[in-house]
Design a protein that fits this description.
The complex is a heterodimer.
Chain A lengths: L13 H5 L9 E8 L7 H17 L4 E6 L6 E8 L2 E8 L5 H12 L3 H8 L36 H5 L2 H10 L2 H10 L2
Chain B lengths: L5 H18 L27 H28 L8 H76 L8 H10 L7 E2 L5 E3 L2 E3 L1 H5 L12 H13 L11
Antiparallel strand pairs in B: 1-2, 2-3
The chains are: A alpha+beta, B mainly alpha.
Chain lengths: 188, 244
């Protein structure tokens, strides 16, 4: 890995960011962090911001995280929530707390459990399309094969329905639509 | 023969406007690039609108769209109807709500505890500040007293010295006085700095005084022992030589 600049540069690596454990619930919209840059009481919150805020923002891209510095002496976090068109705020006092304590407490209060995160990360195996194992419905068992390799019967093709109605009529004299379908399914 | 209502006529106007807009949109090229040579005077063909068909299809379409929209919205908000869910789902929802409320109450309790801690710390800080201020004040007072005492000492020394100062008006008198002064140097000094004259301990002024000559006193026995021990420790060469 090339030499990275800045203090604790691995905080900016994707492995570290993805390993964040705090995923907010849907009701949380804004998270404001109040702390002081020099006072010893807000030491824990400062370290929390240094180590864990990037992880939180990475896992919650639609939540606004704001830092308000050097305004109030006591360090605290507020979570502004929106539930049933009601706006509430949850306060967490971080006076003389350590960064791991703050993380754990916030996870318990306002974060999703590990089980919920796992459940949401699972994708439906039956899906097809972009990003899935099958790119088209023609690969699904029990569906019509790709008409690129196996042309459909004439009564299902727009070419014969729009422009070649006479030829379609002639084909229909010989065999019905159902027969043509049956032939299609039985052939390779 | 169908009756074309007023609403359909206004609808037809908007359609023609939108079709004209669509005919002049170019998706691949940017808008500041001029029209190509073979496309300069090209008017793309306009599909004619069948008024009868349009008048028949529009209300049908509107009805269909409004129905689909209402169903979509119903499905979207249905999960919020708690009384239409199964009993198990309702119970789970209630449990989740209870859990959240409990967590919030506990959070408030914890916050109040921390607040009390904070207030106690602030009070302790204030008291500490007051105590240190008092101690500093006392120290400063002592220092000031010391300075005053030192100053008094210096002043008293100077006053003593000032008694021997020379008056510049009586310079000749002072010079003659100094020249006529006689000092007597026939005294000895101990290693610890005591003056001795005729084996009697004497202070500095009496030592230099030519008129003062004490009688030979008996020396203390302890002093004699000390002096004797000192001289015995010294080697023969270092002992005081009496011969001249």
């Amino acid at each position: 890995m090339p030499f990275k600049k800045g203090p604790a540069a691995w905080r900016r690596s994707i492995d570290y960011l993805k390993s964040g454990s705090l995923v907010f619930r849907e009701k949380v919209k804004v998270c404001t962090i109040n702390y002081h840059e020099t006072e010893p009481e807000s030491d824990g919150l400062r370290r929390f911001v240094f180590w864990h805020l990037a992880q939180v923002q990475y896992r919650n891209p639609h939540v606004q995280c704001v830092q308000l510095k050097n305004i109030v002496k006591t360090p605290f976090i507020t979570f502004h929530t929106l539930e049933d068109n009601k706006i509430n705020s949850i306060f967490v006092n971080c006076y003389k707390k350590k960064e791991h304590e703050i993380l754990e407490y916030c996870e318990k209060l306002v974060g999703k459990t590990a089980e919920e995160i796992e459940r949401e990360a699972q994708t439906n195996q039956a899906n097809f399309g972009e990003g899935c194992s099958r790119y088209c419905i023609c690969l699904v068992e029990g569906q019509i094969a790709c008409p690129r390799y196996k042309p459909l019967p004439e009564f299902m093709r727009g070419k014969y329905l729009q422009y070649k109605k006479d030829e379609l009529g002639e084909i229909r004299k010989n065999k019905s639509d159902q027969q043509a379908l049956a032939e299609y399914w039985n052939s390779k | 023969m169908l009756k074309i209502s007023n609403s359909t006529l206004t609808g037809l106007k908007t359609i023609s406007q939108s079709i004209q807009q669509a005919r002049s949109i170019r998706l691949r090229k940017p808008p500041w690039v001029p029209r190509a040579k073979n496309k300069q005077f090209r008017v793309p063909p306009l599909k004619p609108v069948n008024h009868e068909e349009y008048a028949y299809m529009k209300p049908i379409w509107d009805q269909y769209k409004s129905q689909m929209r209402s169903i979509y919205q119903l499905f979207k908000t249905e999960f919020k109807f708690s009384d239409k869910e199964s009993i198990k789902a309702q119970e789970e929802k209630r449990k989740l709500e209870e859990k959240e409320n409990r967590l919030l109450e506990e959070n408030e309790r914890v916050n109040s505890e921390i607040l009390q801690n904070q207030l106690r710390d602030e009070v302790a800080k204030l008291e500490f500040k007051i105590k240190t201020a008092e101690l500093d004040f006392k120290k400063q007072q002592k220092l000031d007293e010391l300075y005053v005492r030192k100053a008094d000492q210096l002043v008293s020394k100077l006053i003593e010295k000032s008694k021997t100062f020379i008056d510049p008006n009586n310079l000749e008198y002072e010079i003659e006085k100094a020249l006529n002064e006689r000092y007597d140097y026939n005294f000895s000094i101990n290693s610890s700095g005591y003056f001795y004259k005729n084996k009697a301990q004497v202070n500095k002024a009496e030592a230099f005084n030519p008129k003062f000559f004490p009688k030979a006193k008996e020396i203390d026995e302890n002093v004699a022992k000390l002096e004797g021990s000192e001289t015995s420790q010294l080697s023969e060469s270092q002992q005081p030589q009496t011969t001249l």
